[in-house]
Hints:
By secondary structure, this protein is mainly β. The protein has one domain (3-102): Thrombin, subunit H (Beta Barrel), CATH 2.40.10. It contains 1 helix and 6 strands, in the order E-E-H-E-E-E-E. It has a 6-stranded antiparallel β-barrel. A hairpin with a 5-residue loop joins strand 1 and strand 2.
Amino acid sequence: MRAGKLTETIVIQRQSETVNDYGTVSEGWTDLATLRAQVIQSSTDEFLKSFGTTGETAIVFRIRWKDGLKLSDRIVCAGKSYDLKEIKNLGRRSDIELRCVVTDQ
């Protein structure tokens, strides 16, 4: 992947629990990594085949290899949150495609 195609900055977040001074547990999102990514819009055919007929907005981010990603993680790009639906490895630890849908906020 050419560096010139990595035009967007994304943040990968993982859900975590924190305990405040009073012992109350609260859930939130912790930043795992801030990366550069290429945004690839899914075609309608691809989206219909992959996830079935739905009205969700799908987007694909292509990043350089990052170890330890989980489907429970989320992506934040340009102020929008995206749930991961599929993590697809391209080649031998070279690139990854993150297939996502917009999170209902």
